[in-house]
Amino acid sequence: MDIHPTAIISPRATLGQSVAVGPYSVIEPDAVIGDRCDLRSHVTVKRFSFLGPDNVIHEGAVVGGEPQDLSFTGDESRLRIGARNRIREGVTINRGAGPGSETSLGSDCFIMTGAHVAHDCSLGNRVILANNVSLAGHVQIEDGAFLSGGVVVHQFCRVGTLAMIGGNSKIVQDCLPFMITDGMPGRARGLNIVGLRRAGFRSTDIQTLKQAYRILLRSGLTLEKAIDELNMLGGPAVEHLISFVKVSKRGFCHQGTD
User: Fold this and answer.
1) Which of 64, 106, 116, 120 is catalytic?
2) What is the pLDDT of residues 201-232, one digit of tens each?
3) Is 137 tagged catalytic?
4) Sign of CA dihedral 216, 167, 111, 156
5) Which of 107, 46, 103 is nearest to 78 (CA)?
6) Which of 16, 59, 115, 168 would bridge with 150, disulfide CB 3.0–4.6 Å?
């Protein structure tokens, strides 16, 4: 291990093999740091944080901090982070707010400078949060979603897989998977074609999703009838879109009129 002499590490913390801890970083009791993690200077890992292997946390980040929730009474809750994530300067990620609750971050995510992930959020794999994104409590982000700089997301909202959210958008409803959502408030603008191609979607798959977009957002059908039409298209991506819509509690961002 490569531990700078100015770092403060609790004897009750658990560090894996080949961990690096930079100057003035703090690791609190009951924190677990996985193998080969690299904590740069002035990083704080709070108690009840569990980090998998190969994470890199940059200067000034605070992970596992107490939730910014008036109902929090100091109960034990957790932050769980997967593997190979890059967490940049000044990022804050809070642990859960209730007893036994958890904030979770998957693997291979990129959380850019100044982003905030509040209590009880759940982020999947390969999620990108650009600079100064702010997630309120209980937000769910599915695999491969990209949130551009300055996006703010209301509590309990969901962002679907391979969705892209435009810069400075205000998100108060669920953002559909595979779609671009943009604006204040957010509105569906079309398919995230670049993201779909990068994810390996074939042209036939993209054409099917274009049909799904038209049925769901442009046809004028009721939601029930639109879902019936979507079922006829078939395919795993459309099936995921249907399941996402069916369980939405806040409603989802519809097509903009501007």
Assistant:
1) 120
2) 999 999 999 999 999 999 999 999 999 999 99
3) yes
4) negative
5) 103
6) 168
